[in-house]
Every structure is written in structure tokens, then in C-alpha cells.
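Board notes (copied after class):
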Amino acid sequence: MRRGTSTPALIGLATGLLLLAGCGSSRTPATSTVVTAPAPTATAPATQGSTAPTTAATTPSAGRTQAQAQAQKAPPPQFKPRVPSAIRKAAGDAVQGFYVALADGNGAKACGLLASRVERALLAKQGNGQGCAETLAAISGRYPEHLRTALRALKATDVAITRTKGRVSYTLPGIPSSSVPVVREGGVWKVAAFGSTR
């Protein structure tokens, strides 16, 4: 066993231990503040995350609303009925037959191919108390021979009609092409205009 450890040395050792103990206890508050520091940052992701889904959810809804509005404004498609070729030919033949009958002075046949509305208007203007056949025959009698020849050569070139009305384009030798409206009355195509009478 060693001897000779003096009292002042023991006192110095005890003092050092106390100082070390004091330094360790002074660090305890700093440790507590470090633990509580991250607490405020925990709310930031929640705030950002809550707004993002709201924007994403409204975008498709807005897109559907615009598409529905455009669909409502768009006009409905229009479909033109297909007219059989036999009906188009009948309309063209009516125009050709009317002018050939007029060229031949056949007032009765020409009158049968004239629409009733036009017939009434014609008699009111040029009838002079006569019937339709006599009136058309009188008009035909005033035509020069070259016009009669041209009317006999009339050809229907284009027929644009529905099932009840339309227009027939035609050509005459030496005369620019023209057209005349037609209507269907009693299942028969008739000329719906004659000169200035419609």
C-alpha cells in the first residue's frame, strides 16, 4: 500500500470532479431545444399538398364544361335527301316538254306542264278573257321561227331538286344556258315560272 498522498492533492481531485459534473449538467437545456426545433417545419408539406389536388381536380372539369358548351353551340348536321335519277329525269323532261310544246303552238300540252300558281298569274296578266291553252298558243304565235327552232332543241343539263321542288338548268343552241324552277303537283313535275310570271 502506497503512502504519502497529501491532503491538498485530494482536495484538488475532488474539485476537478465537481467541475466536470457541473459542465455536464449545463448542456441539458441545449439538448431539449434541438428536439423541439423541427416541429414548425412539419406543417409546411401539409399546406402545399392540400392545394395541389384542388387545382388538378378542377382542370378536367373545366375541360368537360368547354367541350359540352361547344357541342351545344355546334349546328346539327344537315343531310340532303337522295333523289332517285328517275325523279330528276322526270323534272328535266317536264321543262323540255313545256318549251317544245310552246314552240309547236300546242297550248293545251304546254298549259298541262305549267304550275297552277303560274297559270293563274299568267291569265291575270295576259289572258284577256281566254283560257290557259289559248293564251299560251297566242304567245307562241308571236315567236320568230329561229326561236321556235331553238326551243325544240332545248336540253336539260342539270337538275337540282328535292322530292317536291327544285331547279332545272338547260341549254339552247346559240343562247347562254339558263334555268327554271319546277314544282311537283299531283305527282307531276311542272314549270314554276314563265317569263316574268312566277
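Comment from the instructor: Confidence is low (pLDDT under 50) at residues 7-58. Residues 44-73 form the longest helix (30 residues).
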